[in-house]
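Dear colleagues,

As part of the handover before I leave the project, I'm documenting each prediction I ran so the next person doesn't have to rerun anything. This entry is a single chain, and its sequence is reproduced below.
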Amino acid sequence: MASHTDIDASELHALLESQNTILIDVRNDDEVARGIIEGAMHMPMAVIPGMGNLLCEHNDTALIFYCHSGIRSAQAAAFIANMARDNVYNLRGGILAWANAGYTFVPKMD
């Protein structure tokens, strides 16, 4: 059984600056309306199962999930990791941890 790796905000920041990543925000529409981490794609939790095959492509690229507090994104990361996807990460503490570490948000672009 494959697993994902939990990372903190500073580890996420370093990953975003050092390598190709796919950053996915699994929060609901009303939550992302308040702002997202720059470069993130919004993919609500409910659509993750249907996107599994697509998300499993490019196994060499880090795939990072986040939500409000890290619970939903951990579920999404576990689901995708169990599809034999490597390089799957979850932002521990979610966007709250990101903000508490002093990192910024950008408006969601449609």
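The helical segments are 9-18, 29-32, 48-55, 71-81, 94-100. Strands lie at 5-7, 21-25, 41-42, 62-66, 88-91.

All the best with the project,
I.
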